[in-house]
Specification:
By secondary structure, the chain is an alpha+beta fold. Among the domains are: 17-189, hpI Integrase, Chain A, CATH 1.10.443.10; 293-366, OB fold (Dihydrolipoamide Acetyltransferase, E2P) (Beta Barrel). 33% of the residues lie in helices and 23% in strands. It is built from eleven helices and 15 strands. The protein has helices spanning 43-58, 63-82, 86-90, 94-97, 125-135, 152-165, 175-188, 193-200, 216-232, 273-279, 348-354, and strands spanning 17-18, 39-40, 98-99, 104-107, 119-122, 240-250, 254-261, 266-272, 286-291, 297-300, 314-325, 329-336, 341-347, 361-366, 371-374. It has a five-stranded antiparallel β-sheet with strand order 8-7-6-9-15. A five-stranded antiparallel β-sheet has the order 10-14-11-12-13. A three-stranded antiparallel β-sheet has the order 3-4-5. Strand 6 and strand 7 (254-261) form a beta hairpin. Helix 1 (43-58) runs antiparallel to helix 2, helix 2 crosses helix 7 (175-188) and helix 8 packs across helix 9 (216-232). Mean pLDDT is 80; it is low at 1-37 and 111-116.
Length: 376
Amino acid sequence: MTRRTTPPGQGGTGPRVPLTPPARGRDHGRIVAGADDGECLDAPGLAALEQAFRQWAEEAPRPGVRLSRQRILTVFLLIRYTGAKLREALSLDPGRDIDWERGVMRLGGGAQAGEAGAREVQISGVLAADLRAILESPALRGAGGAVLDLDPGFVRRKFYERAQAAGFDKRLGGPEMLRKARAVELLQGNVPLPVVQAMLGHVTPTPTSAYVSFSPQDIQQVARVFLDREAQRGTSARNAFYGKVHALREGDIQARVELATLDGLRVVSVITRDSVGRLGLRPGRLISAEVKAPLVSLLLRQPGAGAPASSFENVFAGVVEGLTLGVVNAECVARVSDGTQLCAIVPAAWAREQGLKAGDAVWVLFSSYAVVLHVD
């Protein structure tokens, strides 16, 4: 069978997706456990597999079969969107472990000795609505806390079957590979590494930058922002930093705001004092910072060279991940040291003259006046 990571009919076999996005600066491959060849489904592949699961559940010929398929679909959605382990999903009691009001799910409550304990995972409003609709359907109504008490081997077989039916290698549909695919999807969507680690249940120190510390509640808040945006599909995740206000200095008309990200980068923005009041900015408040691609500049970075002297307040070391050359302009995507993906629109002639290509080390620069702040 031909191995696909993208849906059939959408680009053939498609690119193979590594478990670790390139140029993140650390060994992020250890965010998920298990040995494999480094390939997993990409976002379109996950969407195609999800559609295959939903169609399969809807086409059940009898009530008993429909009940079984709805339970399998629920387990799939849990792993696909929360990164839960199979045993965590199967031990979930929806009535006990899901706080519908807060949009939080409790996973790992039955963890064995020596393993990570229970954790709270943020879920999007869309996922919460889907789960409630399934769990309250006639097929599952009245099943109680044992609704997901299924045989793990049976669940694995059904996952493999659905993957093959969707045109993928069955291994790519296994629970562990889905968990890994979700981690990659989140990282490639600019979700900060500490947030992904917390979602997957990895025991890590509380993220602390050189400027400000982040509590578990802060991490959940950042996760909620990302998941809501992902569910709405309304904005691009690129060129967006998330963190806390580290410093705020107000002048007569304008104010200088420093944001510290979870991994310690510092982003500077200059806004009006009126904006400070309207946003309710203060040191320690969680905010996001965005910059438009045409306002981002690039310079090639030489080995061992320090940051270039310039009037730009925001200068970050990065690595080019992708380049699209047009007639007039070129779109360059670079990833900086904290994992944030930044897109820059630069003259195509300059890109050709420099021989710019994926893997090149660059400096990513933008002015403090180009940074727009948001309070989510």
